[in-house]
């Protein structure tokens, strides 16, 4: 073989190798994500310009999202375009009620959120756990069907929370203290995910723009993300835990309770909410907790010290990442460089920020004798024929307090509901423990109001732990406080949970 022929042959081999590499790159790497070769969510398939992906999603019999007990809240309906072609469209039952959980699925603008996004591989049938179902479909010649996702949400509790919030801006999260299962997750105002299911891209884009520009932020899930709140006096649960752990307080101890204190290094005079007295210059600690007095807790926070308060907050899960599987915005405890800042942080003001889920977890930890369970929203995944594929097991996330501290906090929280600021959360025939919070925001809309707690027919085995938060309500509420505004919401949710 002469030299020219060898060169041409070499060039042909190189060209074939380049072609093979290119095809491999497109078919093997760019189409599916490298880390999940079974998925259709790769670089090419996720490109909004790829109409084949949109057509594929409309052509897929996507699996249902169901509640505990089997009620379907997201399903797929088959439709015809009048020319004999079939397509599938997502349908949401009681869409606004469950939107913070389900999210939306919109092939028209290639947009997903909530469980629709996080469990997409199961719902569209691509998940590895559904491999046998795909083989069965291949053998029988049928069309691919998606699997089902069963949630932990209890419809009665979800409905009660939604109705109790009404049209006010806020959120409710309810947990099973012993397992971490999310029993309810409501964010208000909400939206109808059915508006995203239309095949009309222009209509869906208009919907998305209108909701995104709405000042009330209906697309935000206030329960876990999109916003964090100053926890106000509900954070006193954690401040108390730190004081008990470090020996700075005992539940039956008397404490100084002046009407005002001047914070160190400042001219700022801190008073109790509304300028109220805490029963004199001295009172019992249990009374100070029940009445949510600021001055003794601010002093206690300084006595405990910022280092120990930071440690305590982290022990409870502040500044930790979490998904349920929806991504949860981390709650934060600030780095304070003065006693004055520590005092304010100790009463849940300054830069302390928490999600309703985090504060529900705080209440659930006390209810569960100091063990904090990992919250979860998906109970089971099922194949297209509704046979169980996987189930979620309960898991201890951390143990921030011992059982004795949990009992002390439980007793204090019961007193707060029985004869303190939380009386509005009382429910006939039910034992309720809780803590109110009223956090100043510095805005004209008024304070953020809270109730966190737990309840049951037997308070030693509570059936629900919850957090209720309402954004500033100055325009609609006169003298809004956690007791006046959030407590009654909590009572309705508790009644639905315990008496179902």
Structure notes:
The model is unreliable at 33-41 (pLDDT under 50). This protein is an alpha+beta fold. The protein is elongated and about 100 Å long. The chain has a domain at 232-378 and 392-498: Beta-lactamase, CATH 3.40.710. The strands form seven sheets. It has a six-stranded mixed β-sheet. It has a five-stranded antiparallel β-sheet with strand order 8-7-21-20-19, sandwiched between helices. α9 (236-245) crosses α11. β2 and β3 (86-92) form a beta hairpin. The N and C termini lie far apart (89 Å). It is 36% helix and 19% strand. It has 16 helices and 21 strands.
Low-confidence stretches: 33-41
Number of strands: 21
What would the average pLDDT be, to the nearest integer? Answer: 88
**Top CATH class of the domain at 232-378 and 392-498:** Alpha Beta
The fourth-level CATH homologous superfamily of the domain at 232-378 and 392-498 is DD-peptidase/beta-lactamase superfamily
Walk across the major sheet and give the strand order: 3-2-1-6-16-17
- What form results from the Cα inertia axes? elongated
Q: Helical content, roughly?
A: 25-40%
Main structural class: alpha+beta
Main sheet characteristics: 6 strands, mixed
Whole-angstrom Rg? 27 Å
Tell me the β content. 15-25%
Distance between the termini: 89 Å
Layout of strands and helices, then pairs:
Layout (H helix, E strand, L loop, with lengths): L2 H28 L20 H8 L6 E2 L5 E9 L5 E7 L2 H8 L2 E2 L4 E2 L1 H5 L1 H4 L7 H10 L7 E4 L3 H11 L4 E6 L6 E7 L12 H13 L22 H10 L8 E3 L3 E3 L6 E3 L10 E3 H6 L3 H11 L1 H11 L5 E2 L3 E2 L10 H8 L9 H12 L4 E2 L4 E5 L5 E4 L4 E3 L4 H17 L11 E9 L8 E9 L7 E7 L11 H17 L2
């Amino acid at each position: 073989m002469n030299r020219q022929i060898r060169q041409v042959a070499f060039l042909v081999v190189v060209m074939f190798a380049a072609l093979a590499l290119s095809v491999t790159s497109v078919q093997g790497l760019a189409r599916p994500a490298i880390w999940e070769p079974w998925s259709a969510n790769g670089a090419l398939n996720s490109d909004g310009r790829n109409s084949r992906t949109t057509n594929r999603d409309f052509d897929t019999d996507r699996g249902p999202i169901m509640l505990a007990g089997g009620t379907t809240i997201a399903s797929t309906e088959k439709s015809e375009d009048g020319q004999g072609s079939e397509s599938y469209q997502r349908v949401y039952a009681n869409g606004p009620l469950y939107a913070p959980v389900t999210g939306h699925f919109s092939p028209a603008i290639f947009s997903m959120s909530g469980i629709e996004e996080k469990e997409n591989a199961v719902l569209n049938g691509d998940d590895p756990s559904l491999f046998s179902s795909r083989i069965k479909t291949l053998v029988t010649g049928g069309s691919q069907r998606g699997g089902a996702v069963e949630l932990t949400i209890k419809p009665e509790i979800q409905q009660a929370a939604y109705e109790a919030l009404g049209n006010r801006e806020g959120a409710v999260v309810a947990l099973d203290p012993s397992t971490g299962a999310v029993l309810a997750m409501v964010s208000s105002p909400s939206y109808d995910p059915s508006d995203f299911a239309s095949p009309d891209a222009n209509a869906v884009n208009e919907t998305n723009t209108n909701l995104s520009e709405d000042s009330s932020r209906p697309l935000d899930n206030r329960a876990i993300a999109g916003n964090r709140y100053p926890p106000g006096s509900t954070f006193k649960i954690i401040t108390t835990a730190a004081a008990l752990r470090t020996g700075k307080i005992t539940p039956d101890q008397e404490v100084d309770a002046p009407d005002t204190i001047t914070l160190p290094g400042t001219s700022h005079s801190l008073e109790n909410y509304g300028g109220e007295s805490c029963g004199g210059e001295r009172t019992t600690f249990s009374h100070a907790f029940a009445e949510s007095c600021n001055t003794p807790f601010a002093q206690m926070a300084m006595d405990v010290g910022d280092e120990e308060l930071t440690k305590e907050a982290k022990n409870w899960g502040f500044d930790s990442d979490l998904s349920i599987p929806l991504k949860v915005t981390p709650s934060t405890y600030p780095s304070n460089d003065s006693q004055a800042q520590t005092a304010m942080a100790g009463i849940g003001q300054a830069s302390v920020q928490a999600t309703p889920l985090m504060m529900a977890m705080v209440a659930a930890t006390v209810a569960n004798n100091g063990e904090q369970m990992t919250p979860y929203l998906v109970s089971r995944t099922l194949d297209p024929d509704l046979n169980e594929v996987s189930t979620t097991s309960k898991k201890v996330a951390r143990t921030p307090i011992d059982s004795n501290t949990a009992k002390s906090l439980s007793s204090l929280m019961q007193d707060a509901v029985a004869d303190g600021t939380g009386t509005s959360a009382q429910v006939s025939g039910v034992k309720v423990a809780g803590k109110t919070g009223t956090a100043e925001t510095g805005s004209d809309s008024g304070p953020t109001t809270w109730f966190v707690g737990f309840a049951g027919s037997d308070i030693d085995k509570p059936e629900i732990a919850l957090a209720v938060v309402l954004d500033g309500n100055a325009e609609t509420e006169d003298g809004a406080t956690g007791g006046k505004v959030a407590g009654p919401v909590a009572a309705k949710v508790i009644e639905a949970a315990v008496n179902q």
